[in-house]
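HUMAN: Spend a minute on the protein record below and explain its fold to me.
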Amino acid sequence: MHDISQYQDFFINYLKSQNISKEPKNLYEPIEYILGLGGKRMRPVLTLMAAEVFDADYKIALPAAMAVEVFHNFSLVHDDIMDDAPLRRGQVTVHEKWNLNTGILSGDAMLILAYQYFEQYEPTIFRDLAKLFSKTALEVCEGQQWDVDFETRSDVTIPEYLKMIEYKTAVLVAAAMKMGAIVAKTSEKEAEFIYDFGLNLGLAFQLQDDYLDAFGDPETFGKQVGGDIIENKKTYLYLKAMEFSTPEKVSELQKLFSQQLEDNTGKIEKAKGIFNESGASEATQKAIEMYTFKAFETLEKMNIHTEKKNILRNFGENLMGRKV
């Protein structure tokens, strides 16, 4: 097996070799643009890695990895439209650089393009990949809708929030890994194990993202620290603070999360103070740890070489040790 940076290089070289630029330019240029903005390429790397975990050459997993990356970026284009976001990875978003209609249409084309990459596989592999992909894509849409619904609700529960982040984020991480297993033609049992590993890792990853949004280092986080607080998002931190706080602090937090301010410095500091005082910060860190360990427990059930288990464990540990 290879290390993460090698898998990233393999995938980026494959991405660069794809001839996406076609006519009409206003449909395909935005696709090239968003795919070229970089990012960690975590999901396609997981597809390549999973294929090699099950003794296949990573090269056969490249089209599936590409499908995962194209779909992920399709969801980002449409998310940015829904959020009216001006920037993505420090660059202008597609709908801002072109226009709203182009963002919608280019996003639609990306979803179809993602499916086309599965056509490079034999019929049974194509069927299994497409079936998993359809299920995952629908779940991502459901997760996104729940996320939108939660913005106007004051009674969101922790189980509901966990289901939302599972569908919005974790299922695609899990599917990326299972696609590598499908391409490698491993057993359904092993493919399910690696799906569960990815699902728990994806949940830990998103909870950590929630935590870093409030408490990350602005120099390394890569996004505006406190963004979720500014947007009044009811994250795991917020929900745990509501659960643990005194009635006075609950009222203060509700008031803070109903405000739209020009200067949010005070709001961010007050919210973070309540997160710390209530024990919500500690509870979030414990939840991150719990889901990471659940992922590692799944590894022990897998019928793969110890060395490969260690590689997957190291990947999980590195992910959880991130500051970005």
Observations:
- The chain has two domains: 1-184, 187-324.
